[in-house]
Design brief:
It is a single chain. This protein has three helices and no strands. It has helices at residues 2-24, 26-31, 38-80.
């Protein structure tokens, strides 16, 4: 849960940074004069997909690590008996 909240907070910062880049960088601002452009929308979509993949990856790896620890503990206790 904590990692998901951290990545969501980071996504909000990066998403705001995307808007700032399109507003402040002259080459991007000339390319996309308004923030309603499809290029901005596609950039935000790519950032969203990236962060959803990261959230899924970290949650899956945490679940697998927890499951592996539980199995190792159950085998260790079974061998002691």
């Amino acid at each position: 849960m904590h990692m998901t909240c951290l990545l969501t907070s980071l996504y909000l910062l990066v998403g705001g940074g995307v808007n700032e880049m399109f507003l402040r960088v002259d080459a991007l601002h000339r390319l996309v004069p308004t923030l309603n452009s499809p290029a901005v929308g596609l950039t935000h979509l790519a950032v969203q997909i990236l962060f959803l993949v990261l959230i899924g990856y970290f949650n899956a790896s945490l679940l697998l690590r927890t499951r592996t620890k539980q199995l190792a503990q159950s085998f260790a206790s079974a061998e002691e008996s």
